[in-house]
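Appendix B: complex inputs.
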Amino acid sequence: MTDARKSGGSTVALRDIVVRYPGSDRNAVDHVDLDVPPGTLVVVLGPSGCGKSTLLRTINRLVPSESGTICVDAQDVRDFPATQLRRGIGYVIQAVGLFPHLTVAQNIAVVPQLLGWDRARIAERVEELLRLIQLDPQRYADRYPRELSGGEAQRVGVARALAARPRLLLMDEPFGAVDAIVRSALQDETVRLQRALGTTILFVTHDVDEALRIADRIVIMSAGRVVQYDTPLHVLGRPASPYVEELLDTKDAVRRLSLLRVRDAMRAKAVDGQSQRISVEATLREALSAMLDGADALEAIEDGRPIGRLAFDDVRRAIVEST
Amino acid sequence: MSELIPALRGHVLLSGASLAVALLLGIPLGAWIARSPRVREAALGLVGAARVVPSLAVLAIMIPLIGVGFAPALVALVLLAIPPIAINTDLGLRAVPHAILDAAAGIGMSERQIRSRVQWPLALPVVFTGVRTATVEVIASATLAAFIGGGGLGELIVNGLANNDVASLVRGAVGVGVLALAAEACLSLVERRWRGRWGTGAA
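Resulting structure:
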């Protein structure tokens, strides 16, 4: 990890946000409240037209909210000029957001340039970021976006958003245009970066597996409203409404879990002797129930001896990978 | 042979001046058209109608309006060159993908920075195509300027026809051809390098 410095994450608080587009007869975002703790990766999930992108875009004021307040680190976003606000918040959109007439290095340098950094500092930061996203600066700095693969372009998009060390990153369906294998690599990369930098991330997607895979918490939206805001574990195990159940196809997910054993998903890991125990032959469905009842992690027991550990991260990987 | 050089110089001067004026008027016009669909509709209708009128007729109309010589030829050629420049400016500006403009706004560029750093640079190759079209049209049509005393290589053709001087006629005709082809070749070369590099510009 080249970038050892943690920039930390912002707290985001939305209060009673309403957005209505001109000419529309209903609110695109309808009285939404949301609290995002610092350093969490929150996924906003819902079908197209549910207002999830609109909600995201109110935070950097690309979409004006009709009423309500939005605070980032306890400061109202309307207290700043929009351009200044946006330079402090990373923004990543689907695939083509890179500027095709600028090289990779120039793309990444845009925000630092807008902020008036000097050349040496920008050059250093660009190199640091290319290493962070695991692209060789020698080979990639002077390429144009069209010379990159979809996955590489998307990583450069993330690097550009991170250039000025934002404490908040907004990602709007960022991996929608890349194929499934590259997408899961990018998802893992996002989680890795988020853990390393401590950045707060708001991530919009309509892809249920993507949400389950990366989210610390999931916001589920329908027709402009938040219908559930909870951890993936609870969203899956205790869907708040039939709508959530259907959107996530939770019954199917739980059915799939009942076909998998603890043995298949656990990690052979040092055991602390503190956690609740479960047989290696138990199904993941049983493990999920134990977790819903409050167990953070389970000790997998074979012949009376603990041989591994199972956490929710292991369960959700099993769900995503069994599709 | 001695008339060739001054005629060529006159031709280049007339074409160059016409293009320069057409750029100064056509690009802002195109930018204006790009901003409003209603203006675009009206402007494109007008341009479409104007294009039907033959170049020679436009030149002829200039005689009762501003007489003969360099000036009326210049005005006629400017009118001829504005449409391709304005249309391609409009096209180029509107062809910039919305996602790119959205990204530019989202990372904190001001409206002005978006225009100058993103939208115009990306529109430029398309605008340039319009300029290329206009250049070739102007060089070709400047030949007709001789009919209203505007000078240029057309004079060699007009004189050749009048005096039954085939050599002069051929010099004029070949001169125009070579000039137009040379301009076209240079401009396409520039354009190809541009597009190849960015891989953009969809007109």
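Chain A has 14 helices and 13 strands.
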